[in-house]
Every structure is written in structure tokens, then in C-alpha cells.
Amino acid sequence: MGFLTCRIKGYIQPFERQLALQELRALSPGDVIPVDGDEANASLFSVPDAANLGTLRNALAYWQEVGTEPDGLTIQIRREATWVSAHNGGMFNGLIPSVPAKLPKKRCLRYATHGLHEYRGKFFPQLVRALINIAQVPDNGIVLDPMCGSGTTLVETRLAGREAYGLDMNPLSVFIAKIKCQALALNAESLMEAYGTLQEVLCTSLSDQTTRKYFASLPKDDQTYLERWFAAHTLMELDQVIGSVQRLPTLELQDFYRICLSNILRSVSWQKNDDLRVRKQVVELKTGEVITLFLNEALRSTKIVAAFLAERGQERLGTYTVQEADARRAVDAIPTLIGKVDAVITSPPYATALPYIDTDRLSLIYLGLLRRANHRARDGMMIGNREVTERCRTQYWAFYEENKLLLPTATRALIERIDRLNKATAVGFRRRNMSALLSKYFFDMHSVIEQTESLLRPGGVMFLVIGNNRTTAGREVVEICTADHLAAIAETLGFKVTSSLPMDMLASRDIFRKNAMKSEHILTLEKPQ
């Protein structure tokens, strides 16, 4: 029997190496044998040549080459190389340089449509693809993300040719995820032509517009709110941008550039850009600066996605469905999937870490996705929400006292320890709320895992990519080992915890990097056959 040689990427972290070997073993018959060192350090591994060469090249996430032929590069490395080509290619005339003109030398997380919009809590696309492989999702299989955020799982599932389903309660999340999936089917030439049209219109008609037609179409109370956060000339220039976007020939192209507009809203507003709370910092923008920032963002996004589309060619895409829905009621949202989902891949919200709706409020209002008057109610419904009234805190604690036996012993002990420490010391309103909010979070995640169990097929797998947290209770720092608590909750609901893989945190480059969690785990939960 002969062998195929596979070359692992040279810049991956230890946890990614473990995933790389797991995905290779899942897709290959027989042993995976290191060639040029031990398993922890080798760059080359051999597998029996009974493995399907095409399958390995098309599917592997953490590998650079399979086989020795000149075209042995994996599809994944070619996709990542499109970002390198676009990033280094400057202005384009015609198609961006084809790959593999230059292969990536470091981790690339923003290829394809993954870099379209900043979003707190994004996780890694290669991780999703590796987990699809490890779960051995069949070619016609179904992958669900019940808390889909900006759509990383959905994009990778669609690229893998499987059926993708996503749910989220944040309308901006649903909007971004939908457009990122939708844009995978755009035509590269049409996308570049659309950018050229926008550039021509916006660079030649800056002084032509004297009314804010789009802005005037928004509800009056939303207009009033936006006027508190944007200068008058900024709103005029934003109107010019969105007016030019609305004249593009297809809804898909319009949506693509709406995402680009949304991504600059914080930076042209008076919201303090790197602060998660609602804090004003008046900054004067020069005339035309909004137009310039939008065109820069649109060019960056166009180059990256057009390069990817040119490389992807006519490869088959999977289907996708994204809807605004509550993961705690996922069965009601997608009843046709009961017992049919092959894998769930999701990164749940962190406990009490982010003011989700407030973080996105400017885009939600300006794009007409959620009225400002409805923000507080929606924020209160979000899993992991940290904003709460005294009345809600009392209700949450009463619910905990009545239902606490649903939670594992260690989880109850954590909640009650935090409550006891905070009651023994004079603390502020936010810390006083912590025990009730934490109990609410674990009850919510109990519901999510329970709903997921109903949707998974027998033998299906759920992957939770979850960060640990910490709080100060009284005068003590208390570690919240969220991964351990969710694993224990899953076991009470009948799941088998097959692994908990710690992840080295990658340096975040988005505007929320100061709020990144220090440690994360990949929990693997298996539903019994």
C-alpha cells in the first residue's frame, strides 16, 4: 500500500495542530504517521493512499498541501491566499492577481466574506471548517448555529457545500450573516463594476445634494436620536452614500455596500469608538471625509471578496437560512429540523460581558433594522445581557430560588458564593446584580442546550466555543469557568462530553479587543445514538 504526504500549515498554534490531526484522521482511512519529527513538531504526515486525494485537498482546514503534484495546494490555503493578493494588490484594473501568487505566511481570518464587518466575538473560520470535518458531516448534511452572530459558521458551511441554518436575536447580526452568505454567489466583475460606479458618483456629485431624503424616511424619534450622535454635514454625506448605493442594479449589490456603510458608522459618529458603553466624544470631520472613509472601506471589501470570487469560480455552494429568532426557542423557529441536524457549531455569548444591542445601536437605527424605542426591551431578552433593572434582578433571583436544582451543584455554588460575597460588602448596582444575571445566563444556556438536543440527530455533535470569565465579588476575584459549567449542564441533559480543548487566544484586531476573553475552550458534546 502506498502513502500520501500531507503538509501542515507552519504557523498554527498547538490547539490548532490537535484539530488538524483530528480532521485528517476523520477524513483518512488508516493511520496518520509523522514523517519528519514527532507528532507535536512534524510538518509532514503520511496517510494511506486509499484516502481520497480530492476530498483531502478540498476539505482540510489546517493543511497547506496534499500530495506532491504541482497543484497539491489545498483549497483552504488558496482561499486564504486571495486575501494576501487583495491586501497587497493596491488598486485594481480588471481582475485582482490570481492565486497562488503569494501564499500566506501567517494566520488569515478575513478571506472570502469573513472580513466584511467588524463584530465582537467573532470566531475563527478555519476552526469551523475543521469541526465540520471532525464531525464528518455528510455532503448533504445540516449544520446549525443557533446564536450565529455575524455568520462565520454559516459562511464556512455554505463553502463546504452543506446546508447552513442560523438564528440570532440581534437584527444586525442576522443582516450581516445573511449578506455574507449571499455575497458568496456574487460575480467578481459585477462587484468591481459596482464599486467603480459608486466611486464615480460620489467623487463627482459631492455638492449636488441639498436634502437628506433617506434620513427623512426614518421614523421621527429615530431621526432625533441620530442627530444627537452625528454632525449635520455627516448625516448629509451618509445620505449621499446610501443614495448612491440604492441606485446599484441589484439588491445583492446594494446589500453588500450597505454592510460597508454600516461598518464606518461608529467611526464617523460621536460615539467613543473603542468604548462599549454609550459615551459621547465630539469629533469634527472634514467635508468629504465620510465619503472618503466609505470608499476606502468599500474598496477594501470589494478587493478581498472579488479576489476570492475569482478564485472560487463555479464551486458548488451549500444553501443557507438565517432568521431572527431566539435560540432558547429554536425548536419553534425551525421545527422541520427536529432530529435532523448533523452538527451544531456555535460560540455562545459570554456571561454578562457585553451590552449587545447598545454596541450596535447606530447601525440598527440608521439601517432601519430596530427602532430605538425597542432597544431596551430587545437588549433585556439577549442571552448574556448585563443590563438589568432592580425589578428584573428580583425576578431573576426568585426564579433561581425556585428552579436552582435544574443547575449542577458546582454552578449553584458559584452563583451563591458571588451573591454571598457581594451582600457582605458595600458594592455598586452592577456588582449587586451579578449573581442574578449569572443565574439567568446559565438557565438560558440550559434552554439552548436542551433545544439543541431535540434538533440534533442521534449521534449528532454540538461544538461550543466558549470563553471563561471572571468577576470581583466583595473584594475577591472569582473565576467563572463557563466551559466547565456548560459541560456539566449538558451532561444533565443527556449529552456525552467527549472533549474540552483549551484554545490559546489569538490577538484580536477589532475595535473590541480590550474586551476579549483571556481563555476559551472548544467543548464537544455528543448526543447518544
Q: Judging from the principal axes of the Cα atoms, what is the shape? A: globular
CATH class of the domain at 3-73: Alpha Beta
Which radius of gyration do the C-alpha atoms yield? 24 Å
Main sheet strand line-up: 7-6-5-8-9-13-12
Binned, the helix content reads 40-55%
Alpha-beta content class: alpha/beta
CATH architecture grouping of the domain at 3-73: 2-Layer Sandwich
Cα-to-Cα separation, first versus last residue:
34 Å
What's the total helix number? 21
Note poorly predicted spans: 507-517
CATH topology of the domain at 3-73: Alpha-Beta Plaits
Architecture overview:
The chain contains 21 helices and 13 strands. With 529 residues, the chain is an alpha/beta fold. A seven-stranded mixed beta sheet has the order 7-6-5-8-9-13-12, sandwiched between helices. A four-stranded antiparallel beta sheet has the order 2-3-1-4, covered by helices on one side. The chain starts with a strand and ends with a strand.
